[in-house]
Automatic annotation (TrEMBL):
Coiled coil: none annotated. Belongs to the amidase family. It comes from Fuscibacter oryzae. GO terms for molecular function: catalytic activity. InterPro entries: Amidase (IPR000120), Amidase_CS (IPR020556), Amidase_dom (IPR023631), AS_sf (IPR036928). SUPFAM superfamilies: Amidase signature (AS) enzymes. This is Amidase.
Amino acid sequence: MFGDLGAKDATELAGWVAKGQITPDEALDAALKAVEVLNPRLNAVVMMQEEVARRAIKAGLPRGPFRGVPFLIKDLGCEAKDFPGHNGSRLLANTTYPVDSEIFRRIQTTGVVTFGRTTSPEGGVGTATEAAVYGGPTRNPWNLDHTSGGSSGGAGAAVAAGIVAIAHGSDGGGSVRIPASSCGLFGFKPTRARLPDGPYVGEGWAGMAIDGFLTRSVRDTAVMLDACSGPDLGAPYAAPPLIRSHADAISRPPRRLRVAICDTTLTGQPIEPEVAEAVRSAGKLLETLGHRVEPARPHADMGMMMRAWTDIVGVGTALSIQKALKGRPLTDELVEGVGRGAVAHAATLAPTRYLEAVGEIHAFGRQMAGFFAEGWDILLTATLAELPARVGRFAHTTTDYLAYRMEGIFPYSPFCAAFNASGQPAASLPLAMSATGLPIGLHLAAPYGLDEELIALCAEVESAQPWIDRRPHIA
């Protein structure tokens, strides 16, 4: 039964529930069976709370758009009093929360049946999910020798494998879009502050981090974003208001757009040939839809941005580790190598460096805005510069945090973090497959605040070249 359900998106499953073709308990049974069968190979779903899910069903689910659909939340953020978390770390194992976060509360109003968490790397730092607290790496359903991505790697693997149709994720440097690309899914990063952070966080990584979702369809993301968008009480700032809802935006195609296509990195370096060809093919698809596609790339200071991003995240990681240690020594039994390296790196920075780095991030955002102000509506690139990496390549064993980010991850993922820094909306679409059967994500980014135009374009592309029937063999 779970195999049939895993082929659908959340909107269709909710329709089955609404028509009485399946009950919420039966849908949950199927998801739990899928975990039993698939998770030993994937290591994607952790800390399951079946009793909590059954109680929610018995109490009566909200009459929301996803009523009765099984759901998983990332084991990093999305704090919920009924769902303790490890946060990808042995240091933070079995953390409990006194109240629900605002993002979790809004997710629950859609009627989903949340029954567990998905794996994340320690601190959310990295493009692979291989945290020691989970006993091993999370693997890609398309090829178990490869990573499902990070930091929402468990969410990506669970949705791609058909365990659930939709899952929560978060994105501070590509952490929704990288798993989407790696696992053949749709992943959308909204404009900065489109979704709430409170009450546990004022802003994530100087505003660069935001929640999101891994889905099999654009419409599922659009509906969930509508349910969750808007500032929470006391938010330090808010995204520009939408002209129309995400769901309304995808109901009709966008205007014809001027698209800049870049089949290299944003600094002009070559990317893997098969990936570059996928970018060019996506450009041709947009042309057939009537959009104007021309080669161009922004000349923003990518090196400054990535170093500032690295320092901000290093300081944030060090702060969270030092708070959690509560006076205990920093040992490799508690914190993995990259985390210990982040603490050491943060200690080398001047006390004024954090604010300086935030200023550099803001300057970079202005540079990117200047590029789009030249008349470009969309920037098309790859999501990753290569095919999904093999398991182990980005393990958190090294203590050289700076090299891990600047020399390891940034060449592999040179696109995504730019739009966390600029705050712009961006999406990864599963438009291509490699000759070896691995997904290739294509990345679309739009000007700040224009989420509805970007998601409308994503829906148009999905309609022209559907991907929902493409599934890994394991599913």
